[in-house]
Write a structure and sequence with these properties.
- With about 325 residues, this protein is of the alpha/beta class.
- The protein folds into two domains: about 100 residues, Orthogonal Bundle (Arc Repressor Mutant, subunit A), CATH 1.10.10.10; about 190 residues, Rossmann fold (3-Layer(aba) Sandwich), CATH 3.40.50.150.
- About 45% of the residues lie in helices and about 20% in strands.
- It has a seven-stranded mixed beta sheet with strand order 6-5-4-7-8-10-9, sandwiched between helices. A three-stranded antiparallel beta sheet has the order 1-3-2.
- Helix 9 links the parallel strand 4 and strand 5.
- The protein is globular, with a radius of gyration of 21 Å.
Length: about 325
């Protein structure tokens, strides 16, 4: 299998010159454009979503987004027929990076307007509802749909090798976020003293429960809800696993923040996920909210959550999809 080649966000490389600095200053001189950048603090949104959040006509919003893009203050990414906007990932050695970082830092120190926050919550709820409705309707045939992209065997062996690499003791605790039908739970239950399985789909969690009952696995605690539910229950672990989950999650970066709170210091996060692709049929056929991710995105979200990259693996599949596996380690006590 060939090593995956990731595609970069559509962020033009800037050069240090008076015109570039002038573009950035001009883009940052408008209050509405500053509101857009504040909304994009830790999220990516489509144009129509931003129109809803900011209560703007699409033509007016598009003008301001173009100004921000020309100044390299936003990056774009295509998701099917939609263009999503986000802040660029900053290269600290790139020209104007200090200026842009200072701008973002000062914006982030400003509290988000209550009305904007409420509308962002609405957008996330709408995304979540789409995902939940899909799994509710298709729980019985989800594996068949998932195998249109990849079979579990194509990444589970590599995931298990990365778990071994952690060197965690047998009496450690593991958490799987989004276990689906529970195909990986037996391996975790055999390897660790205690396993917590967290899923917000009642239909999928019921299948995982049944699998555990059939295999007489007695060390698995099932939690219906988001990872935040485990945080509220003060559950912690040495390993958090997310296998082919993030592309179903309304706000993927939040998973990293929550994982940081769930992990004990020195604990690990294991991710298997699709690389960014252009096969938009997965949105309808497999319930995907996102068409994979750039490795740089996952590493950026992990770093923001206090997680350090340990090991990466990339698997190329014959059908054109590519799978990325990442092992991260929590090296401090952020979130505790």
């Amino acid at each position: 299998m060939s090593k995956a080649t990731s595609r970069q966000l559509n962020t033009p490389k800037s050069t240090l010159s008076s015109p570039n600095l002038a573009l950035a200053c001009k883009a940052a001189s408008d209050l509405l454009r500053l509101r857009i950048l504040r909304v994009l603090k830790a999220e990516s949104f489509g144009v129509l979503e931003l129109c809803q959040i900011l209560d703007l006509a699409q033509s007016k919003l598009s003008h301001h987004l173009k100004v921000l893009a020309n100044a390299n203050l936003v990056a774009t990414r295509r998701e099917g027929n939609s263009i999503f906007y986000r802040r660029p990932l900053l290269d600290l050695d790139a020209p104007l990076s200090d200026f842009i970082q200072a701008l973002f830092t000062n914006l982030d120190n400003e509290p988000l307007d209550d009305q904007l926050a409420a509308r962002i919550t609405e957008i996330k709820a709408e995304r979540s509802l789409l995902s939940l409705e899909f799994f509710s309707k298709n729980a019985g045939k989800f594996r068949e749909m998932q195998e249109l992209i990849t079979e579990n065997s194509q990444y589970v062996r590599n995931a298990t090798d990365l778990v071994k690499l952690t060197g965690l003791p047998d009496n450690a605790t593991a958490i799987e976020i989004g276990p689906g039908e529970g195909h990986y739970l037996p391996l975790l239950a055999e390897r660790f003293r205690q396993v917590h399985a967290i899923d917000n789909s009642p239909a999928m969690l019921a299948q995982a429960r049944q699998l555990a009952a059939d295999k007489q696995l007695t060390n698995i605690n099932f939690i219906l809800g988001e990872a935040s539910e485990a945080i509220q229950q003060k559950i912690t672990a040495e390993l958090v696993v997310c296998l082919m989950v993030l592309h179903h999650v309304p706000s993927p970066q939040v998973i990293f923040e929550q994982t940081s709170q769930l992990l004990n210091s020195g604990g690990f996060m294991l991710i298997a996920e699709l690389c960014h692709h252009d096969q938009s049929w997965v949105k309808d056929s497999c319930g995907d909210l996102w068409m994979g991710f750039e490795p740089e995105d996952l590493k950026h979200w992990a770093q923001t959550g206090g997680l350090t990259a340990v090991q990466d693996l990339f698997l190329g599949l014959r059908n054109g999809f590519q799978i990325q596996l990442h092992l991260f380690k929590k090296v401090n006590s952020i979130g505790h």
